[in-house]
Amino acid sequence: MIKTWLFTLLTPLFFWGCSSSKEGLKIIATPVPHAEMLEFIKPDLKAQGIDLVIIVTDDYNMPNRALANKEADANFFQHIPFLDEQIKQFHYPIESLAKIEIEPMGIYSKKITSLTELKDRGVVAIPNDPTNEARALLFLQTQGVLELDNPNNAQATILNIAKNPKNLKFIEVDAAMLPRSLDDVEIAVINTNFALGANLSPLKDALALEKKDSPYANIIAIRIGEENRSDIQALKTAMTSEKMKEFILEKYKGAIMPAF
Amino acid sequence: MNTANIELALNLLPLQLWNTLYMVFASAFFATLIGLPMGIILTITSKGHIKESPKTYKILETLVNIGRSFPFAILMVALIPFTRWIVGTSLGTTASIVPLTIGAAPFIARLIETSLKEVDKHILEAVIVMGSNPFQIITKVLLPEALPSIVSAITMTTINLVGYSTMAGLVGGGGLGQVAIQYGYNRFNTFIMIVTVTLLILLVQILQWIGGYIRESILRKRGKLSHD
Questions:
Q1: Cβ neighbours, 10 Å, residue A242
Q2: Does B80 touch chain A (CB under 8 A)?
Q3: Which CATH number fits the domain that encloses residue B174?
Q4: May I ask the CATH architecture of the domain A2-103+215-258?
Q5: Chain B: nearest CA to A202, how far in angstroms?
Q6: Number of domains observed in the structure of chain B
Q7: C-alpha span between A135 and A229 (Å, rounded)
Q8: Contact A25, A51 (CB under 8 A)
Q9: Residue B51's domain spans which residues?
C-alpha cells in the first residue's frame, strides 16, 4: 500500500523533473531492445532539430498511463493485444503509430523440413500459458494448419480449435520445455527467447517465423489524433527506415526482426 | 457463475480427473514396486540388523537422498532421455508417470524403512534363534508385522503423488492440478479453480479413507485395534 502511494506521489515528480530540464520529443521505452533502437536514431533526429528524450523503464503499466496523461509523447514497449487490454481496462486515448519490431515465434521441427510434410495425426507442442498459447494458435492459423472458432481470439486455447484438417494432436507444455520436446513431436511452436536459449537459430532452423503482419509485433504508441505532428512523423520515418532495418538485423541476429 | 464456465468445466474435468487418477495410481504402484525392496534392503543392512552391511547401506542411502533432493520440475527435465527410452516419448500423461515414479520411490523407501525398523527387536531375535533364514525373516516376520504401517506409507505416498502430479502440466501431462493452474490461476477463472481444488480435496479424502480402512481391517483381524 505504502509502495503504491509513494509511486503515485513520486511518478509526477519524476516526469516534472524530466520536462523542466529538457523540452523535446519524449518517449518511454523498455531498455532492450527498444531504448537501444531509439538511441540509434537519436543523432538523426537531432540533425532535424528534434531533441529525442528517451525515458527508460522496466514497468509495463506506467508508460501508457504517462502517455495518456501527456507526460510523454510516445511509448515503445508493447504489442497490440497488450495495448488493447490496457485500453479496455483504463480507457486510454492511445493508438498505434507503427509496428516496429517483433520477437517472432517460430515453428521448429526435427522431423520435417516444411509444413507441407506435416503428417496426419502428428503431434504439435504449443506453450501452455494464456498469452503464448493463443499466440501460437493464431500463428498456426496463419500457416493454414488449423482454424479457430473466432479467428482473432487473443485468449484462444485448444478448446477453441474449430477446424483441424490433419487431425493433429495438440499438447500444451511449459514454454521453456518446448525446445526439449522437439524429439517427441512433429512440430513445436517456440518463442524466440527459448529457441535461442536452446541454440536454435530462428533464421536458419524455423520452418516458419511470425511475420510483420502478426499482432504481436511491438509498436510505437501515441495519443489519438497526434499522428500528424511533424516531430512524430519524423520519429516514424526514422524508426521505419532501411537504416533501422539493417541495424535490427545486424545487432539482434534474428532474435528480433523488423516489422515494417 | 455462468453457463460458459460450467461448459468449460464439463469439457475439461472428466478427462483430466481420469488423467490424475491414471498418473497417481500407476506411479504409486511402480513407486511401491521399486521402493519396497529398497526399504527392505535399507532396513536389513542397517547397523545391528540381520544383514548388517555399512557399505550397501551407505550407497543406497546416498541414492535415496539424491532422489529426494531434486526439485520435481528439474527431475522431470533431467529424466527426459530415460523417460523417452521407457515410454517412447517425454510428453503426455503416460510419460509423466516415469518421473513421478522415480520421484516417489525414494520417499516410499524411507517410509518403509521406518515402518520395518519399528518391528519389535525381541520378535526378530526369537525367530533368529529358531534358525529362520533372512528370506523367511523378511517375508514371514518383518513384512507381516509392519503391514499396517506399510499401508499407511503407501497411502501417504499416493496422496503426495496427487500433489506432485500437478507438475505434470509442464510436460503436457494434464490432470486436475494442471487445469487449476492453466485455467484457474493463469486465466483468473475462480470458478474453475474452486471446482478443481474441491475435486482434489475429495480425491485426497477418499484416498485417506481407503488407506485408513485397509489398515484398520488388518489390525482388526489381528485383534490389535484396541491398543493401537
A1: 8
A2: yes
A3: 1.10.3720.10
A4: 3-Layer(aba) Sandwich (3.40)
A5: 23
A6: 1
A7: 33
A8: yes
A9: 3-227
Q: Do A173 and B91 touch (CB under 8 A)?
A: yes
Digit-coded pLDDT (tens) for B69-113 = 999 989 999 999 999 999 999 999 999 999 999 999 999 999 999
The H or E element containing residue A147 is strand A147-148
Preceding omega of B144 cis (within 30 degrees of 0) = no
The answer to whether the CB atoms of A183 and B11 lie below 8 A apart is no
Contacts of B84 in chain A (CB under 8 A): 183-184
Contacts of B92 in chain A (CB under 8 A): 171
DSSP B52: -
How distant is the Cα of B25 from the closest Cα of chain A, in angstroms? 22
| B171:A130 CB<8 A | no
pLDDT surpassing 80 at residue B209? yes
How far apart are the C-alpha atoms of B74 and B71, rounded to whole Å? 5
Q: Where are the domains of chain A?
A: 2-103+215-258, 106-209
**pLDDT value at A19 more than 50:** no
Please tell me the pTM assigned to this model: 0.79
User: Alpha carbon of A44 to those of A238, A260, B153: distances in Å?
Assistant: 8, 19, 72
Q: Is B186 on the interface with A (CB under 8 A)?
A: yes
Asked if B170 and A177 come within 8 Å (Cβ–Cβ), the reply is yes
Topology of the domain comprising A106-209: D-Maltodextrin-Binding Protein; domain 2 (3.40.190)
Predicted-complex ipTM score = 0.76
